[in-house]
Amino acid sequence: MTNVRHQRGRKSSIGRVATVVGALAIWGTVEGCAVTDGDVRRWETTERGPDKLAAVVKYAKYKPELRVAAAEALIRMKARSGKRIGIDNLLATLAELSDGERAVVVSGLVQKLVEAMTAERPARNADGTWPPDPSVPYKDAAFGLLSHEPSLVGDEEGAKQKLMSALATWVQTDFENRVDIASQLYGIEQIARFVGPEAVRNLPSLLDDRSTKLDRIATLVADIGVAETKAKASKKLVELTSRVDSSEWLEKTGKADVKRANEKSGYKADAGAFTKQVEMYRDQELEKLFSAMKKVGGHDAASFAIGFAADKNKPANRRRAALASLEGHGSDLKGPDADKIFEIAKDDSTPDDVRDLSFARLGELPKKEVEKKLYSLFENKRWKIRWVSAQVLLRSLDSAQIEEFLSHLPASAATPMGMGEAFTYGDLLRKIEPKGAKAEKPMDVLKRHLATGGMGSRLAALGAFYEGKKSDKALLEPFQGDKMPVSKCADADECGWVCDYPAGDPKAESKAVGTIGDFVTFCVLPSMTSN
Questions:
Q1: For 255-308, what is each residue's pLDDT tens digit?
Q2: Nearest alpha-carbon partner for 94 in 52, 37, 56
Q3: What is the DSSP annotation of 459-492?
Q4: Given 112, 115, 305, 445, which residue has the most CB atoms within 10 angstroms?
Q5: DSSP 3-state assignment of 510?
Q6: Which of 371, 309, 394 has the alpha carbon at shortest distance from 344?
Q7: For residue 178, how many other CB atoms are within 10 A of its CB?
């Protein structure tokens, strides 16, 4: 939008310059009346001042020092009707000049911009509020000059680099307050992305337990920072999360913050309610930190998150947050880290929602690192653990590995197996894409297991035909008499061996499924209605 505005300014400049020239002729300035520094200062506040100042910037008849002073006056000029027209006028005027004439003004302006951007910000007011930041218009002007298409800054005496460095310093100085200044023409994120890695190099040092901009800092570091900057942020987030998770933080910071909030709102909490408030507050803070870790990544953050999630003494919601922070960061994990995730997944005491996330993280690791581990979980006495493990595996297998997968399924009804497994495995197996022109199609492999193999492999093969084509019914009908029993599970196991028959009929009855033949008759064949 910036460049569009500048180009639009270029189009309208002809009329504006004509107006300015006419006005200057009336004042007599074109004919010889001298323009002084006092005039330049006064025009900052007059109605026609912007045009007069732009004319001084434009014409070589004025001394370079006066043209630079006029340019600075346009930068300082207060907003009019809510618009900072001074900077827009300056950029449009400079765009009309030749490279040589523009350099006369810009070269004299650069040092003023740098000094203003790097100057110490005024102290807070007595009431704790901040006075207007006088560096903002200079920062906006510097960015406008650099980002204009084409750039309005030449390479004379390293002008571009000086402005880029000053912008990088400005962004990282008092970031927490400057990021929310509403009057700036260009936001900090926009400038940081333009400047590049140097604009975020020092942001990790701003990460502390009083930072209100964790998310924005993490986003910028993740998107722009070099590896070294990201590593520093990762380490800093680990230190900060450890602090918030400590009893010291709870006593000194958590309780104090909640107490102040209650006093401000007038809420009176008894001891029990207050304790819950403090823990909820800590939950929120940890959630923010793990969210920041997810953005930044890095081995320090990943290793810490896994250790946190593996701690059985941590509340389930915090363990989930830790595992969620690892999403997309499989490359940051080392061998022992993967082992810890696996231990979380297989532990019978792990809450189901925590286990689900541990499996999701295992699924993001290279297949060779987790395949054997996942197959080992097929022997778990809880069929749902095999179910989740198998889904992770099936999303990474090719058709040549279908036989091996089927061989790991329960051979007989002695091993608990849920009916949901048959449908899930069948659906995922038939969707596997063959790799290579000579690779066998998944359905051809599965058809061989309709009548042979153990209970699990036959159920998975039949499940691949669920909601399939009518034309395949003849292939399955002979198996209606298959007497091989399916698993008989305790009610607590929720194996679910029941189907509504006929499917979709308002008067359908719930039919118990005791054999593979029942599964074909009551579950699979009625679902095969597509052409």
A1: 999 999 999 999 999 999 999 999 999 999 999 999 999 999 999 999 999 999
A2: 56
A3: HHHHHTTTT-BGGGHHHHGGGGG--PBPP---GG
A4: 305
A5: strand
A6: 309
A7: 20
